[in-house]
Amino acid sequence: MKKYCIGRTLIIGLSLVIANGAFGIDPKPEAVQPSSSDGMYATAKPNAAAVKAQSQANARRRQIMAAVRAGDTAQLTQLLKSAQPSEISDALRWAVVFKEVNMARLILNSGYNASQDTNRNHILNLAINNNDTEMVRLLVNKGLAANIEGMRGRDALENARRKGNQAIVDILVKAKGLK
């Protein structure tokens, strides 16, 4: 069996990645260089409890995504009762991607905390990129700030101006208190 490593990450076989006790699939395992022959990783084994927990978390995320995509408010409400903050953030992102405004409203009213979500700008920009005026209005009204810079240094308003959707620009200008 081939073993490769990058820092604290170990790749066994062709695609299983073990990092900090959890695992996932590496889409490009061939890009990884072989580890040194010191045997440091020769006995590394996945933590069974961490693998099981990750598998359960992935199953929950799939259930949440399916409920959002199907517009199943009863199922989503049930799943959100015990959801972790990252799962709620993922659910909101999926609602934006699938243009499910009612699902987004449900998620935002179920304990989503915009101030603690590191993806909040990404979520708002997804709605802007989808030209989804109603979703942008909902997100801004629920506390997703329009002035947080994205990865490329542009804020949501600049992104909306670049997309050319004047209705979204107006919503963001009003949210920022500009004229």
Broad CATH class of the largest domain: Mainly Alpha
Number of strands: 4
**Beta-strand percentage range:** 5-15%
What structural class do helix, strand and pairing data support?
alpha+beta
How many discrete structural domains?
3
The CATH topology of the largest domain comes to Serine Threonine Protein Phosphatase 5, Tetratricopeptide repeat
Task: Summarize the helix and strand pattern as letters.
Answer: EEEEHHHHHHHH
**Please, what is the average pLDDT?**
75
By DSSP (H or I, 4+ residues per run), the number of helices equals: 8
- Portion in helices: 40-55%
Instruction: Tell me what the CATH architecture of the largest domain is.
Output: Alpha Horseshoe
- What is the terminal separation in angstroms? 64 Å
Topology:
Elements: E1 3-6, E2 9-12, E3 16-19, E4 22-25, H1 48-70, H2 73-80, H3 85-97, H4 101-108, H5 120-129, H6 133-141, H7 156-163, H8 166-176
Antiparallel strand pairs: 1-2, 2-3, 3-4
Helix pairs in contact: 1-2, 1-3, 3-4, 3-5, 4-6, 5-7, 6-8, 7-8
